[in-house]
Amino acid sequence: MILAIETSCDDSAVALLDPDGKVIFSQISSQTELHKKYGGIVPELASRKHLTSLPLLLRSAMESHRLDLKDLKAIAVTYAPGLIGSLLVGVNYAKTLAWMLDIPIMPVDHLEGHLLAPFLDNKEIHFPYLALIASGGHTHLIHAKKLGDYQLLGKTLDDAAGEAYDKVAKMLGFQYPGGPVIEQLAACCPEPTIVFPVPLKGKKTLNFSFSGLKTAVRNEAIRQGVFVEKQRLISFEEYLIISDEDRKKKIADIAASFQKIMTIIITRRMDEALNKTKLNQMAVTGGVAANTGIRASLKRLGEKKGVRFFFPETGNCTDNAAMIGYTAVQHLNAGNLRDDKLFKLNAASKSPIGLMDVKV
Ligand code: KG4
Ligand code: ZN
To answer: pLDDT tens, 238-295?
Structure first.
């Protein structure tokens, strides 16, 4: 049995996988309640919470299959990229366990975990494929050639896609995370009226940029008198009971218009990348891949181009340990495990995949 641990950001997660990479247990302890009122993650709070969540998660993993720690044959852990305090908790926990049990430890790049997450829920996907990792920290468009061989085709020049969702939600007065709330608001306004500018329009690039769009949304929210700066942030349920119908309408229209432009931006880039690479499979992964509007649009694109489209189940889009364990098992089975990791292994806020240069 392989134990996987993920603590790169705000969620603590533990998974158990068999030697073939089949997930037999996967649990996430969400910290959303802790951070939502701040409109974003508070790193110090996140690290402390991992410290108390991890032992509980490990205990439920062991109890779920009546296992003993001695049944663990290896430990996979996210070592980078992410919030350093959060990563340190997971890495140190994994190192201690690995040392105590005298078993190998496999450091996993969180981005590679997201990249391979579509394999968790789709039997048909295989290398090579085009992948968009769109999360709270990264927006990376990747040509995944084979295990460990990834070419970066484009990335965000400023904010990540998930970050844009979170910031727009916050400026409209909503709690973290912004993605799900924007989706719910967008559903209240089927015909959005605001046309936001497409970033990097007319430029020959596979990069992304969201900061100009964010400013455009901010200006529109100010213009319409719904920009929120210092008030208490609210949930979607609280929005539903706002009595000012005009304000509600304006907020939903801005959110839906933003959702629409994000869908257009992502779909266009995938289209252009498919034209360039001539790949016949594409996947979207990371927290933003949970967005049903974006998925539906990419599905249509795939159908139009005769390209198969894959995405992980919603719970495997956002951070989870199953994808970390799966990635480790693939490398382990490919003979990519080096045994000297235990003492040298450290956490890092940036990772090789996150730092790759764009090559087209
Ligand atoms: O992959 P993830 O769980 O964590 C990182 O590695 O960053 O992604 C979290 C991000 C947040 O920014 C969140 O707002 C966004 O994913 N997200 C969504 C949706 N669900 C989560 N964005 C758009 N639509 C969603 N349904
Ligand atoms: Zn992530």
So the answer is: 999 999 999 999 999 999 999 999 999 999 999 999 999 999 999 999 999 999 999 9
| Ligand 1 atom with the shortest distance to the CA of 317 | 1
pLDDT digits (tens, 9 = 90+) for 86-141: 999 999 999 999 999 999 999 999 999 999 999 999 999 999 999 999 999 999 99
Could you write out the DSSP letters of every residue in 251-265?
Answer: HHHHHHHHHHHHHHH
In contact, 322 and 291? CB cutoff 8 Å: no
The number of the ligand 1 atom at minimal distance from the alpha carbon of 286 is: 1
- What residue ranges define each of the domains in the chain, with the CATH number in brackets? 2-116+319-344 (3.30.420.40), 123-311 (3.30.420.40)
> What distance in Å separates the CA atoms of residue 62 and residue 51, rounded to the nearest whole number?
18
Q: How many residues does the chain have?
A: 360
Establish whether residue 183 lines the binding site of ligand 1, counting it when its CB lies within 6 angstroms of any ligand atom: yes
Which residue's CA is the closest to the ligand 1 atom numbered 10? 136
